[in-house]
Design brief:
The chain is an alpha/beta fold. The protein is 44% helix and 13% strand. The protein folds into two domains: 13-68 and 229-233, no CATH class; 74-225, 3-Layer(aba) Sandwich (Rossmann fold). The protein has helices at residues 13-29, 34-44, 49-58, 62-71, 87-99, 127-140, 157-171, 199-204, 211-219, and strands spanning 83-86, 103-105, 111-113, 146-151, 175-180, 193-195, 208-209, 225-227.
Length: 239
């Protein structure tokens, strides 16, 4: 596996992370508890906390990764159904892309932010740019309807939802944007596509769309981080 430029460092950090990722992948496939396996490889490779977070968000057992990939919508099929968007999940990931923050392309096919910003997120100067990137993509590739749900407990979520509502109205897109206490409780279990990379949301839905990844490719945004997708093609341990 290639090391993403900028992450290898003088101490070979990037290569060390990839080697740890392969071991973590193998131990999960052998049935070891996920947390115990992560502790073991983290200690063996003396990984930083941020590196362990990379593995936690980016490396999954083969059977789980394949199940998630099988539910991911590809091509234009997602436009045939209502699209429900995990608002903060998608928006924060797009902001991270615009800011050049580290991301991970997980072996389950999802693009994920690794900074755990959802706990402390607040709108910033880049918020409007991220919002524009999201709604312009949807204007170019409009779904049947689009429903943005934001986490109400998060700071200024109502304001962010209102900005999305206005953007949808301005572009003539059919849909809504609102803040709710627990967005995942409102996502339909069938008959719709859910835009999210959140693990729990992806596991619970019938079909999911990696909207932030589509926006990244559509906008030509640079990816800065680690790519673990090739792990499914290799199960060997690197010692």
């Amino acid at each position: 596996m290639a090391v993403i430029p900028g992450h290898e460092g003088h101490d070979g950090r990037g290569l060390k992370v990839y080697r740890a990722a392969r071991d973590f992948f193998l131990f999960q496939n052998l049935g070891y508890p996920r947390d115990a396996a992560l502790d073991w490889v983290g200690n063996r490779f003396t990984l930083r906390r941020t590196d362990r977070d990379l593995l936690r968000r980016g490396v999954f057992a083969e059977n789980l990764a394949e199940r998630r990939r099988a539910k991911r919508v590809c091509g234009a099929r997602w436009r045939e159904k209502p699209l429900w968007v995990d608002g903060h999940n998608v928006h924060i990931t797009v902001e991270s892309l615009l800011l050049g923050r580290p991301l991970v392309l997980a072996n389950d096919g999802a693009l994920r932010d690794v900074a755990a910003l959802s706990r402390s997120y607040k709108p910033t100067a880049v918020t409007d740019a991220a919002l524009t990137a999201v709604v312009r993509f949807l204007k170019t590739f409009p779904p049947r309807t689009v429903h943005f749900l934001f986490d109400a407990p998060m700071s200024r979520s109502g304001e962010l939802a209102a900005r999305y509502r206005e953007a949808l109205r301005h572009l003539g897109l059919s849909g809504e944007a609102r803040a709710v206490a627990v967005p995942e409780k409102h996502f339909p279990s069938s008959g719709a596509v859910i835009a999210s990379s959140d693990q729990a949301v992806v596991d619970a839905c019938a079909q999911w769309l990696d909207l932030a990844r589509w926006i990244m490719d559509f906008q030509g945004l640079a990816f800065f981080g680690y790519d673990f997708r090739s792990l499914l093609a290799s199960k060997a341990v690197v010692w």
